[in-house]
Design a protein that fits this description.
Elements (H helix, E strand, L loop, with lengths): L2 H68 L11
Length: about 80
């Protein structure tokens, strides 16, 4: 076995280690992206719930204002008879 063979074997092992590291890095990146997608979906759901709550508060507020402003007026045609 010559020194050139040892060089080729060491290059082959180094290349395999590099490929294995690249595969591991892509696998970890995939897992990270999956978790990130779940976090973004949760944030979108929370934002939707907050907006729905805000809209219900606005409707309730305007309903209260309408009742306070319009609730004291008679519902008839003027009160003469």
């Amino acid at each position: 076995m010559s020194s050139l063979d040892i060089l080729y074997y060491s290059l082959a092992v180094g290349f395999l280690a590099f490929v294995a590291f690249g595969c591991f890095a892509f696998y970890q990146l995939g897992l990270t992206l999956i978790v990130l997608r779940r976090i973004i979906e949760e944030i979108q759901n929370i934002v939707a719930e907050i907006l729905a709550f805000k809209n219900s508060l606005q409707r309730g507020w305007w309903s209260l204002v309408a009742r306070l402003v319009g609730g004291n007026q008679p519902k008839g045609g003027g009160g003469n008879g």
